[in-house]
Amino acid sequence: MSRNPVRIHRIARVITEIFAPAVLVTLVLVASPFTLPEVTAAQAAVAAFFVTLLPFSVVVVLARRGKLSDIHIGTRTQRAPILAGTAVSIGVGLWLLTLMHAPPALHSLIYAVLLGLIASLLVNLVWKVSVHAAVAAFLGAMLASATLPLGLFWAAIPWAVGWSRVQLLAHTWPQVVVGWVLGLGIFAAYITYLR
Question: Is the pTM of this model over 0.90?
Fold first, then answer.
């Protein structure tokens, strides 16, 4: 059976875009009124805006102006200012959510995102880690823990995301594996200390 590199590239590109960190985190936050007690739609909207939508909009504008390599910030040295700016945006969002009396469960989820962001920022100062893989691993673990024993099916998400990043030459397998470990570590901290 012959391999079609163009088709494989297209599949990898679709997986990378559908399961991009901003997409996954936005979905988790938008769905929070259905999964977390007492979260309102307005609180979820504020969380999604400041945690992902505003920072990602800035990334898109900068990428279109040629200030960033691409919307996934493939150049490691360009990541630190974006991740730091995202942390500031998340801080503003947390402050507004406090004023809106958002429940602790929503704050905890956002703290987990912030913890992952800070960990990614620190690693990316010296080495390129796959944030796609980290977020996919966190989400896969979250979905699996909520739907065990059939939840192990969700492990396909981080595997597919990791494969896509390697196929697109955006990351190496070690960078993906470290991303998975990072995401699982953040999930372990979330369920142990934050939730």
Answer: yes
Tens-place pLDDT, residues 102-149: 999 999 999 999 999 999 999 999 999 999 999 999 999 999 988 877
DSSP of 75-97, one letter per residue?
A: SGGGHHHHHHHHHHHHHHHHHHH
Domains identified in the chain, total number? 1
Longest dimension (CA), the chain: 60
Torsions phi, psi for 150 (to 5 deg): -70, -15
The SS3 call for residue 54 is helix
Structure tokens at 54: 């505003």
C-alpha 36/C-alpha 40 separation (Å) is 9
Measured between alpha carbons, how far is residue 126 from residues 76, 119, 162, 180 in Å?
Answer: 9, 12, 20, 18
187: containing domain: 5-194
Residue 127 exposed, middle or buried by CB count within 10 Å (0-12, 13-18, 19+): exposed
- Residues in CB range of 166: below 8 A, 6 or more apart: 172, 173, 176
Q: Residue 141 and residue 135: Cα distance in Å, rounded?
A: 10
Structure tokens at 24: 């996954």
